[in-house]
Amino acid sequence: MIKDLFYFLIFPGMIFSVLMGGILSWSDRKITARVQFRKGPPFLQPFYDIGKLFYKETILPEHGARLTFLAAPVFALFSATLANVFILLPSIFPGSGFKGDLIVVFYLLTIPSLSYIIGSLASGNPLASLGASREIKLIMSYELTFILALACIVIKSGMSLSISDIIAAQQEGGAFIGSVSGVLLFIVILFVIQAKLALVPFDMSEAETEIAHGVFIEYSGSAYAIIKMARYIMLFTLPSLMMTLLMGGFSLSGFGILWSILKLVVILLLITLIRNTNPRLRLDQAMRFFFIWMNLIAVIAIGLSIIKL
User: Fold this and answer.
1) Owning domain of residue 81
2) pLDDT confidence bin for 70, thresholds 50/70/90
3) Domain count, the chain
4) Which of 80, 106, 148, 254 has the fewest Cβ atoms within 10 Å of its own Cβ atom?
5) Is the whole-model pTM more than 0.90?
6) pLDDT tens digits for 106-123?
7) SS3 letters for the chain?
């Protein structure tokens, strides 16, 4: 029981993942600032943001469902933390995890977005409802692509639904990204991550210039601080999942630590590059992008995986 609490609350759980996510958020903002010829925030700015929000008053919507409104960020934080634990433990402690944990991770990674939708609808704000409507439609498009990508991973690992087995298969036969189907999966999962993080060009559910932060428009104070923590965790968890499924996972010994950091940095750079070089898509364009092009690439990757390419 104590060990499980340590995994969940400290390492590789909530505290560790919030710290790592905050560092990645700072890196993303710093790179973006440099691209735009700005100085960018100080290193601790992401943590200052959370600290200031916890000290500020949490304003509740007058006509909303207040309990649901406050519970939604908590569910997002807990599900993101659990997903991170289930992803990292098999890399840190080989053989840990359980059969079917890949399916559990898939569902856990969906809960934050669903929580934001429920919380925004509970606020009673029409702009929040519009953001929720956009998020629902976007989820319907990219989750199918994500399922196809995971199905291809399962095929490449010898029909295993265990993250430990997927890592072991890559240790024996090489990282999946070294194959043609692996490269296609990398592209697909990268765009799915972009959508799950609600980053440009898939930030239409927030769209500050259109619907004033959309799903989060009514959140403030400690409730919004919890949302920021959940988003920091997701910023670390989703690249970690890509590393685990396609790049052999993490290593905490010797040169492997530097190699793991390098892989994480490369994924973050690609995410930041996409965010800074593309305009926001319309919702119909984003749905068409996933339903047609990303699904097509994922299906081709599945075909190539079946013939061992």
Assistant:
1) 2-306
2) very high
3) 1
4) 254
5) yes
6) 999 999 999 999 999 999
7) CHHHHHHHHCCCCHHHHHHHHHHHHHHHHHHHHHHCCCCCCCCCHHHHHHHHHHHCCCCCCCCCCHHHHHHHHHHHHHHHHHHHHHHHHHHHCCCCCCCCHHHHHHHHHHHHHHHHHHHHHHHCCHHHHHHHHHHHHHHHHHHHHHHHHHHHHHHHCCCCCCHHHHHHHHHHHCCHHHCHHHHHHHHHHHHHHHHHCCCCCCCCCCCHHHHCCHHHCCCCHHHHHHHHHHHHHHHHHHHHHHHHHHCCCCCCCCHHHHHHHHHHHHHHHHHHHHHHHCCCCCHHHHHHHHHHHHHHHHHHHHHHHHCCC
